[in-house]
């Protein structure tokens, strides 16, 4: 075992994530005021719920202001400090080390650099601060805060002055920070100044008395409140930064940073001639937001204006948006080749002192609302209502839409709308004209897919053997891709050893675990939101970003990074002579050695680049018996990093021509490490061979090629989308993987900067594996291997759930005999090394104790939960048996994401854990109150970053009813919770759940991944009570095969990292930690406890106890054991599971745990938790095992032993006590109890969140979801409602709001009524004004929503029963809707009706734009003006009449007044599968 | 993942190939099972669930890739199926015919629990039979000869399996057998109604086409000294089976009319194959009341052979109950159909008669408690003696190893039961105490199955290849 560099455990600083509330206030006519500053601070305080509070209860994660320079105040302050300011001056905010020597050195250095730039330092001012405003933790890290004043030389232009300040600051920082980590300059500018700190928003002006000084006036102020996933905060990471404040996360930050480094050599600007002096252009450490700020600053300082710079970094979706302006598209297309997007959720407010603006990411994953008041103040913020304005003062309200940019120019008083900005950008140059004739599509360069030269069968066999192709892969991966045009689906988890643990040669790709988005950023739904995604790939040498001219236009484009033979040949034919190529042979002489060979090909690549080669082809074909291939991934990564390091990467496109890549994961890995294009030539040869052998029939080769490529494309979309990335260009080089099992020598040469925490195989091991394959490959007589990776095969890879294990377990639970269990346990506990924990051994105690001194089985059993397994995946019988068994044992069963039949509530068959997943199936108030634990399923081990999947064959009438969906229609849940796009969104959902069921504990289920510990810290700060860390190997009912195989990491890493990180952050005592994934025996439990778990989830194990024989056909609805099927014959005649069998299993485990505790000398289970000294690592059986270093897993992270190691708090109570909600309950409870109804009135502010949830919970607990409908409680409300207005609304609760509301209105509502209308004295145009926010009606199952205004993005996503009327919606309206009626009396955004399988909608389309807006895949649209549509028209008329009566909508009345006209402009939208006649029935029933 | 309809196994029951009616079967010695046609083979193969854990493959001693070739057959890909089938089994057409599938692959098939197991054996037979008819042959064109030669003693399934692997790896196998035809017990022990001898003849042609050389009618140790094999060959494999038949150990076994199972069966095969040297060697059960003692497959073969010879009656007595018989349930069922009468829980005490057998005295038994291995031992019921009238008695209690006297001369070690020591997990699989000598099959395991003999022969061949550094 080797020692890593990090003896401090598994945590890494770069794992930190953050998100937040943000905003800006600007006086459009540049009239500064202290009111504006004060109001910004107040607004920050109104966004406290979007920030986080440290364990000390007072330190914030950071908040701050960035304002246009308050000239008058600063001059007075300078004078007070004896500083003489010139006509033009700059001011800097500087954090200095509290150590005087360090501080003095930093001052000197900064001053020297300024003087070197020809600038005069006028003086320093100590900023008044009040440390009492800090919490304990932020006091510890509090720097010495000073301001530096710099005078501008006479005659120097302001922009030049700014640039000199910039260069001086950058150079000084590089020098100072090398020895002084505290030093930081938040701002240094003649236009802007920053005040920020690790305090609560309310304490910001207390900490900085300047901010409370009425003389401090500004006309632009940005503000930001941070929620970090780590409570070891740094002052420098508080926002805003120097140009922007960012809410969200740049998923592609690794790639963006590396590409920025690579481009720093091509960057050239007259204005910044010495780029070298300020390299690296962006910080390589610290937060993604700070890097984005760096990049923006570099672009602006280099001469690019704010708007173009921002649009290049955060572009809208343009590749697949059909209706986009051609000139605007040309602008984006022209620039896309020269800079890849910084991709991820982003809400950004920015200012350069003159312009103040806001930008949203292409998919609208962050909220931003604005209001313009009569006094010409514009306020843009995460929420509406962040300060109190009178309704009659409002001139306009709006929201930022996906991909939009809005700005105000305070020097001209002009509001720059998105259209204004777009028109300006697209008109700067004739981009479309430039591109014309200069953009060639690769496909157009050849006519037909060439048959090519078919490899002779025995030669093909050699390739297959050399590159590890098996019969299994041919049949179950490649054949499916080629026949079906998509990946094969499988069942259950990956029960094979990790690549490094395997005793067999495994693909290098198997050492790479795909990263995925959970909590702090959302995955994207590639099925329903493909409109924002693109695989389009561009070829040619990159050019200088700072110059735009037609000579930079020529390029080759392809619609996917996967080449076919035809495209490959066309490419190498060097069209136009612009793309000279060089082929680098990856096969090296055996005696050269792998590492030397890699270094040699890197040198060859550099030489080629210097010679002007544009296409560098890395090829492992042809093969030779006296050579070994360098694995394409090793070569790609090494060459990419070398070219970046040598400043040549942007001159080269990397084309990888390889036999190693065959499935989407392989190709994604190559792209992730820098490949531009991949030609998986062996895959195509195999398709031909499948035709030759007759394994594929009735297809021709070109069709197979296209299907295969389509299947790979779908797989690539899935892989990038699980990390929340929209474009392959952003994914390229982003290295979004964790390496598990490669030694540092390999990582350092080939995969620099990739997380790799436990070492493993070195070059020698990889070479030996390849040599072993080669030995077999060149023996012509040997056939290709049969396989055994996906399913058990004798002589193939070890499987943890092999037939012996399954049979012995089933025997034991049937007999109830512990001796039989011991046989099973021995097979598991003494197996060949298959998991990391198999390399960890319990240290024998010096003093074992008698068994009767160990705590009882009865006290251990409640630590066991059955893991979430949905009803749907499981048969009702299996689902109920599990619940009954767990309830009898004192543990808890988990409903999984399929809902639960209310008939089970209150019985022994009820699941005590109710799961809330992205599909929100069955989630109603009654469901939520019938739970002890509410589990938010963020991710699942078998497919993290993706949604749950239930094939249509398994959706029978019962399942459809319980899930509020359609029988026979496949259910693929959205990858993200649409109400969790960020950590503070999760905090909101947790708050929502605690409101509806205050007695319940809230659990969050995550999957092990590098950085899951910091995510868990954020989850704990979001007030979760329990956290589950699932391993990659957990089971599932249905999942794409590469999702099972390649995403997620072992729970040994995730659990240990989480335990370490929670302890570091003083959060461990607040949450209960659980782990699941492959747990089978008491030894597994004890090891997991030692690594930090106090609770344990079992999925597959108890299923096997019920009779599952691990057939892996759960997805086919034909499980012969009746466990995972909805087929009645199989369930009734062949299901043999009993609660006794499951109970036997868990009792056996508990008994084994007791025995192990006795052997360890441990009396109570708590004495095990987190005690890593009880484990020691073993050398293992292979050289690869011996290369592993498990010390980081066993590390105590340098923390004192007396820090809590397990949960001590009964629950994690939110900072926000919800006083108004409690008051509502006190007022209404008698009426609820008596089922009497009534009317109550309250005033709301944006801080009042989840209004109605608390009441709904009380209603549901007593009367079910709808039992109160006959005697409704009406609340008359005024003002601005905070997030989640009407969440989980129960029948009988009617909420009337005069005002507006933020996000998630009516989320999960089951009944009742929500009516929202603008104040009576409103001056704005209601039907063009947002009245509710994003993701309203998410997962709602019933009730009515009338909102007299427009809604934001994803309105009615997963709606299955609500009747809704609004006057406009944003993008993705009615996404994945399965029931209900939605009436949109105005414009929709794009992608309306994506994945809509039930219900229907009416859309008023005045300007005939809807045809370009809706998603054509599953819905069709009908005019309703024709005669045969009278029932539909009548229904709509009556509905609008009721709507107008309830809301007083002016627009609604106008429609009624001229209904014939508006009806003629209205579409009826319905699922293609639905009949118009059946809709009529629904209409009649609804009316 | 299954390509066929997922619920086919529910909609379509298990359907074996047509079995000849007992009325027809009892008057001839031909195989009783018909053959699938391509459609029925495809349909039955399509019932397979393609289990994540293929229990069939796990239980099969040669670990056939069963779901894979079932899928190929379900899709009509016969030659690929034949190729796949031979990856793991040297004699698939034989195993398909003689394996006790009901306690091996089919017994453990997931569908055997309430649905009717997949007809694995019948499909396995179908694959090779039909592929060979259609012209498929093993393709050794890619094999480079190594110049090495290995002597194989015994042309039974163990020896044939070994020869197959050696040939496929460029090593010349020379197979010696004292019989005039290959197959060992396949030819001379197993009756033709289970395994027609043309099947073995075809396999001989195939293997000769693969370069296997047979030297028949040569008994090592009598016609040819073992030392010569050691001298002339690079390695030697022993697959000589077990031939010392077990006696009952009760009075009367020496009476006239009492026969041992194997000589009886062999005499019948010799008669049928025209290999009989003297008509007196033939044992005829026509019109005789026959009692067979034993419960294994050998006993079944004797039962059913006697039936076909026209015995007046055939009674099989076994000391345990039906559930605990070691033989294949399917064989018992076939025997019942053909008229065999079974007496369970009967233990023979004495064969009674005066010079010639007149009956068998048995007493009743009951099963006692299960031992550590789960096997229940019969206990005698006092006062339950009875005599079963009989003209002929066949002793079918199984076989023990008959180690050659010259083993010791060459350092080939045996255990206390006469089995040659050659372990599957040694550095070189199935190597004996003499490093140049390898062994497998019944002589290593004790009396067992064709498929286990094949497996050990193939594994031993791998050991030999390692030994020869091929
Ligand atoms: C049939 C089946 C269905 C599952 N359904 C869900 C689900 O609905 N929600 C969820 O979070 N996890 C689900 N899982 C994953 C389990 O909750 C759990 O994480 C995993 O099974 C634990 O690993 P194990 O199967 O190795 O014990 C499912 C697992 C199986 C086997
Ligand atoms: S060899 Fe025997 S056990 Fe194996 S599959 Fe064939 S019939 Fe079944
Ligand atoms: S056990 Fe039966 S159903 Fe399963 S793979 Fe084998 S033959 Fe098919
Ligand atoms: S793996 Fe699935 S198909 Fe049935 S036997 Fe087990 S539930």
Description:
The complex is a heterodimer of chains A (1487) and B (470). Chain A has 1487 residues and is of the alpha/beta class. In chain A, 33% of the residues lie in helices and 18% in strands. A ten-stranded mixed beta sheet of chain A has the order 42-43-44-45-46-47-48-49-51-50. In chain A, β39 (1072-1076), α35 (1082-1090) and β40 (1095-1098) form a beta-alpha-beta unit. Mean pLDDT of chain A is 93; it is low at 1-7. With 470 residues, chain B is of the alpha/beta class. Chain B has 18 helices and 16 strands. Chain B has a five-stranded parallel beta sheet with strand order 3-2-1-4-16, with helices on both faces. In chain B, strands 6-14-7-8-9 form a five-stranded parallel beta sheet. In chain B, strands 10, 11, 12 and 13 form a four-stranded antiparallel beta sheet that branches. The model of chain B has no long low-confidence stretch (mean pLDDT 93). The chains are: A alpha/beta (1487), B alpha/beta (470). The structure holds flavin mononucleotide, iron/sulfur cluster (2 copies) and FE3-S4 cluster. Residues 48-51, 54-56, 66-67, 109-111, 118, 120 of chain B line the site of one iron/sulfur cluster. Chain B: Residues 26-135 form the Dihydroprymidine dehydrogenase domain. Chain B: InterPro entries: DPD_II, FAD/NAD-bd_sf, FAD/NAD-binding_dom, GltD-like, Helical_ferredxn. Chain B: Keywords: 4Fe-4S, Iron, Iron-sulfur, Metal-binding, Oxidoreductase. Chain B: Residues 149-457 form the FAD/NAD(P)-binding domain. Chain B: Pfam families: Fer4_20, Pyr_redox_2.
């Amino acid at each position: 075992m080797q020692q890593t560099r990090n003896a401090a455990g598994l945590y890494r600083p770069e794992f930190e994530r953050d998100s937040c509330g943000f905003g800006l206030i600007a006086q459009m006519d540049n009239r500064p005021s202290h009111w504006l500053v004060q109001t910004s601070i107040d607004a920050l305080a109104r966004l406290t719920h979007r920030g986080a509070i440290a364990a000390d209860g007072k330190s914030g994660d950071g908040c701050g202001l960035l304002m246009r320079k308050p000239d008058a105040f600063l001059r007075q302050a300078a004078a007070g400090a004896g500083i003489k300011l010139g006509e033009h001056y700059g001011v800097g905010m500087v954090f200095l080390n509290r150590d005087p020597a360090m501080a003095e050195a930093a001052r000197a250095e900064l001053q020297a650099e300024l003087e070197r730039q020809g600038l005069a330092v006028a003086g320093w001012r100590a900023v008044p601060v009040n440390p009492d405003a800090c919490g304990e933790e932020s006091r510890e890290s509090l720097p010495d805060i000073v301001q530096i004043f710099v005078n501008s030389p006479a005659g120097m232009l302001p922009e030049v002055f700014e640039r000199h300040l910039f260069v001086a600051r950058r150079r000084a920082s590089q020098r100072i920070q090398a020895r002084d980590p505290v030093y930081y300059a938040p701002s240094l500018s003649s236009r802007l100044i920053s005040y920020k700190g690790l305090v609560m928003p309310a304490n910001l002006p207390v900490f900085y008395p300047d901010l409370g000084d009425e003389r401090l006036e500004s006309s632009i102020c940005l503000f930001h409140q941070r929620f970090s996933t780590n409570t070891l905060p740094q002052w420098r990471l508080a926002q805003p930064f120097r140009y922007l404040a960012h809410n969200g996360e740049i998923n592609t930050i690794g790639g963006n940073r590396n590409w920025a480094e690579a481009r720093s050599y091509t960057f050239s600007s007259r204005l910044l001639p010495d780029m070298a002096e300020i390299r690296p252009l962006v910080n390589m450490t610290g937060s993604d937001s700070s890097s984005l700020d760096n990049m923006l600053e570099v672009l602006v300082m280099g001469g690019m204006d704010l708007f173009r710079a921002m649009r290049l970094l955060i572009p809208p979706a343009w590749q697949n948006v059909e209706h986009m302006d051609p000139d605007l598209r040309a602008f984006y297309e022209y620039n896309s080749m020269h800079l890849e997007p910084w991709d991820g959720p982003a809400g950004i407010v920015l200012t350069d002192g003159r312009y103040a603006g806001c930008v949203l990411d292409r998919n609208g994953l962050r909220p931003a609302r604005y209001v313009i008041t009569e006094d010409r103040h514009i306020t843009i913020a995460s929420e509406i209502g962040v300060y109190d304005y009178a309704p009659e003062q409002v001139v306009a309200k709006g929201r930022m839409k996906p991909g939009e940019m809005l700005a105000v120019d305070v020097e001209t008083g002009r509001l720059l709308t998105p259209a204004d900005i777009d028109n300006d950008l697209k008109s700067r140059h004739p981009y479309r004209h430039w591109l014309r004739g200069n953009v060639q599509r690769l496909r157009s360069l050849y006519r037909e897919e060439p048959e090519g030269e078919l490899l002779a069968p025995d030669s093909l066999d050699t390739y297959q053997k050399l590159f590890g192709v098996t019969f299994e892969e041919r049949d179950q991966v490649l054949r499916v891709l080629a026949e079906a045009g998509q990946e094969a689906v499988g069942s259950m988890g990956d029960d094979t050893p990790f690549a490094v643990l395997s005793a067999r040669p495994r693909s290098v790709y198997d050492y790479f675990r795909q990263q995925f988005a959970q909590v702090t950023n959302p995955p994207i739904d590639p099925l329903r939101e493909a409109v924002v995604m693109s695989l389009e790939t561009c070829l040619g040498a990159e050019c200088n970003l700072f110059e735009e001219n037609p000579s930079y236009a020529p390029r080759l484009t392809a619609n996917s990074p996967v080449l076919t033979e035809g495209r490959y040949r066309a490419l190498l034919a060097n069209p136009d002579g612009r793309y000279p190529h060089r082929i680098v042979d990856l096969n090296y002489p055996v005696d050269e050695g792998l590492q030397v060979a890699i270094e040699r090909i890197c040198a060859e690549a550099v030489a080629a680049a210097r010679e002007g080669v544009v296409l560098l082809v890395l090829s492992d074909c042809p093969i030779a018996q006296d050579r070994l291939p360098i694995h394409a991934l090793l070569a790609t990564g090494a060459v990419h990093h070398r070219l970046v390091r040598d400043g040549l990467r942007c001159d080269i496109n990397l084309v990888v021509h390889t036999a190693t890549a065959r499935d989407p994961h392989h190709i994604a890995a190559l792209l992730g490490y820098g490949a531009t294009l991949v030609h998986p030539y062996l895959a195509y040869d195999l398709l031909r061979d499948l035709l030759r052998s007759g394994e594929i029939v009735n297809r021709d080769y070109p069709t197979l090629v296209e299907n295969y490529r389509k299947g790979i494309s779908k797989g690539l979309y899935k892989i990038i989308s699980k990390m929340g990335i929209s474009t392959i260009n952003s994914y390229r080089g982003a290295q979004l993987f964790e390496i598990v099992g490669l030694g540092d020598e390999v990582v350092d040469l080939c995969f620099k900067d990739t997380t790799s925490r436990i070492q493993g195989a070195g070059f020698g091991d990889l070479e030996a594996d390849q040599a072993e394959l080669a030995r077999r490959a060149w023996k012509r007589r040997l056939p290709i291997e049969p396989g055994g990776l996906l399913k058990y095969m004798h002589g193939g890879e070890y499987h943890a759930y092999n037939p012996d294990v399954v049979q012995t377990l089933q025997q034991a639970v049937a007999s109830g005999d512990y001796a039989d269990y011991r046989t099973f346990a021995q097979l598991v506990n003494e197996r060949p090394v298959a998991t990391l924990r198999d390399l960890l051994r319990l240290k024998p105690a010096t003093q074992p104790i008698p068994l009767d001194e160990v705590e009882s089985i009865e006290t251990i059993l409640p630590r066991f939960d059955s893991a979430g397994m949905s009803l749907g995946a499981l048969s009702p019988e299996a689902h109920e048996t599990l619940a009954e068994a767990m309830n009898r044992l004192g543990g808890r069963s988990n409903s999984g994401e399929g809902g639960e039949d209310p008939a089970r509530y209150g019985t022994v068959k009820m699941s005590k854990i109710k799961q809330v997943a992205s599909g929100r199936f069955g989630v109603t108030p009654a469901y939520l109150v019938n739970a002890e634990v509410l589990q938010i399923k963020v991710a699942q081990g078998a497919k993290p970053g993706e949604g749950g999947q239930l094939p249509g064959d398994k959706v029978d009438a019962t399942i459809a009813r319980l899930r509020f969906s359609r029988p026979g229609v496949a259910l693929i849940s959205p990858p993200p919770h649409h109400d969790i796009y960020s950590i503070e969104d999760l905090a909101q959902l947790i708050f929502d759940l605690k409101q509806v069921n205050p007695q319940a504990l809230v659990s969050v289920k995550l999957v092990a991944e590098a950085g899951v510990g910091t995510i868990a810290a954020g989850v704990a700060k979001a007030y979760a009570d329990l956290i589950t860390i699932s391993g990659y190997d957990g089971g599932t009912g249905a999942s794409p095969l590469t999702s099972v195989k390649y995403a997620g990491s072992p729970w040994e890493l995730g659990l240990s990292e989480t335990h370490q990180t929670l302890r570091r952050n003083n959060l461990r005592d607040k949450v209960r930690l659980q782990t699941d994934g492959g747990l089978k025996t008491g030894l597994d439990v004890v090891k997991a406890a030692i690594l930090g778990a106090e609770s344990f989830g079992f999925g597959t194990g108890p299923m096997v106890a019920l009779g599952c024989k691990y057939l892996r056909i759960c997805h086919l609805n034909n499980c012969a054991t009746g466990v995972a099927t909805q087929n009645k014959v199989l369930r009734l005649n062949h299901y043999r599971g009993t609660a006794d069998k499951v109970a036997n299993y868990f009792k056996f485990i508990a008994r084994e745990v007791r025995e192990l505790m006795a052997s360890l000398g441990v009396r109570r289970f708590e004495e095990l938790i987190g005690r890593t000294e009880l484990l020691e690592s073993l050398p293992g059986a292979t050289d690869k095992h011996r290369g592993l270093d498990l010390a980081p897993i066993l590390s105590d992270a340098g923390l004192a032993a007396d820090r809590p190691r397990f949960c001590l708090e009964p629950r994690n109570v939110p900072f926000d006590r919800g006083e108004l909600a409690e008051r509502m309950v006190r007022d209404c409870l008698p009426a609820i109890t008596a089922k009497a109804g009534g009317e109550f009135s309250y005033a709301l502010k944006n801080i009042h969140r989840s209004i109605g949830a608390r009441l709904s919970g009380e209603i549901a607990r007593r009367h079910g979801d709808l039992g109160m409908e006959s005697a409704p409680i009406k609340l008359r409300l005024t003002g601005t409602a905070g997030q989640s207005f009407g969440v989980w609304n129960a029948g009988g609760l009617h909420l009337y709001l005069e005002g507006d509301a933020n996000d998630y209105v009516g989320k999960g509502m089951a009944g009742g009524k929500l009516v929202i209308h603008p104040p009576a004295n409103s001056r704005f145009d209601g039907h063009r004004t947002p009245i509710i926010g994003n993701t309203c009606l998410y997962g709602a199952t019933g009730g009515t929503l009338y909102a007299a205004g427009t809604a934001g993005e994803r309105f009615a996503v997963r709606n299955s029963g609500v009747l809704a009327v609004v006057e406009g919606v944003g993008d993705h309206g009615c996404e994945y809707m399965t029931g209900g009626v939605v009436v949109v009396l105005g414009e929709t955004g794009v992608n309306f009706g994506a994945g809509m399988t039930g219900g229907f909608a009416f859309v008023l389309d005045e300007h005939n734009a809807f045809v370009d807006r809706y998603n054509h895949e599953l819905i069709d649209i009908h005019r309703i003006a024709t005669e045969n549509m009278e029932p539909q028209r009548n229904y709509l008329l009556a509905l609008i009449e009721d709507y107008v009566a309830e809301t007083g909508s002016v627009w609604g009345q106008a429609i009624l007044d001229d209904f014939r006209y508006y009806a003629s402009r209205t579409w009826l939208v319905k699922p293609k599968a639905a009949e118009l006649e059946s809709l009529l029935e629904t209409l009649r029933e609804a009316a | 993942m299954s390509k066929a309809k997922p619920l086919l196994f529910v909609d379509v029951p298990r359907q074996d190939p047509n079995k000849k009616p007992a009325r027809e079967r009892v008057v001839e010695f031909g195989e009783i099972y018909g053959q699938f046609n391509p459609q029925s083979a495809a349909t039955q193969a399509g019932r397979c669930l393609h289990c994540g854990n293929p229990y069939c493959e796990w239980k099969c001693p040669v670990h056939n890739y069963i779901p894979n070739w079932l899928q190929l057959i379900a899709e009509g890909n016969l030659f690929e199926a034949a190729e796949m089938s031979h990856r793991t089994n040297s004699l698939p057409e034989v195993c398909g015919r003689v394996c006790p599938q009901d306690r091996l692959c089919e017994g453990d098939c997931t569908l055997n629990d309430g649905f009717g197991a997949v007809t694995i054996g019948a499909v396995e037979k179908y694959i090779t039979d039909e592929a060979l008819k259609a012209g498929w042959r093993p393709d050794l064109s890619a094999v480079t000869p190594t110049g090495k030669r290995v002597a194989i003693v015994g042309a039974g399934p163990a020896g044939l399996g070994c020869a197959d692997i050696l040939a496929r790896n460029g090593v010349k196998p020379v197979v010696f057998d004292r019989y005039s035809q290959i197959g060992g017990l396949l030819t001379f022990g197993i009756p033709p109604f289970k395994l027609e001898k043309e099947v073995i003849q075809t396999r001989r042609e195939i293997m000769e086409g693969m370069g296997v050389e047979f030297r028949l009618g040569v008994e090592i140790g009598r016609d040819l000294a073992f030392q010569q094999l050691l001298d002339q060959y690079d390695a030697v494999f022993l697959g000589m089976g077990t031939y010392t038949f077990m006696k009952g150990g009760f009075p009367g076994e020496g009476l006239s009319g009492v026969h041992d199972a194997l000589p009886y069966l062999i005499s019948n095969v010799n008669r049928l194959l025209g290999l009989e040297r003297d008509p007196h060697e033939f044992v005829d059960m026509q019109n005789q009341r026959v009692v067979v003692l034993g419960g294994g497959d050998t006993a079944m073969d004797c039962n059913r052979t006697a039936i076909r010879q026209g015995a007046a009656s055939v009674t099989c007595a076994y000391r345990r109950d039906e559930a605990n018989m070691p033989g294949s349930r399917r064989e018992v069922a076939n025997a019942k159909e053909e008229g065999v009468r079974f007496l369970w829980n009967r233990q023979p005490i004495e064969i009674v008669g005066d010079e010639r057998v007149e009956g068998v005295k048995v007493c009743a038994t009951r099963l006692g408690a299960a031992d550590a291995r789960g096997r229940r031992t019969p206990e005698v019921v006092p006062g339950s003696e009875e005599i079963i009238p009989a003209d002929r008695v066949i002793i079918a209690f199984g076989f023990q190893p008959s180690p050659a006297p010259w083993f010791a001369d060459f350092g080939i070690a045996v255990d206390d039961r006469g089995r040659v020591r050659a372990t599957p997990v040694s550095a070189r699989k199935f190597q004996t105490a003499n490093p140049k000598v390898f062994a497998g099959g019944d002589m290593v395991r004790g009396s067992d199955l064709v498929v286990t003999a094949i497996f050990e022969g193939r594994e031993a061949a791998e050991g030999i290849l390692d030994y020869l550094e091929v």
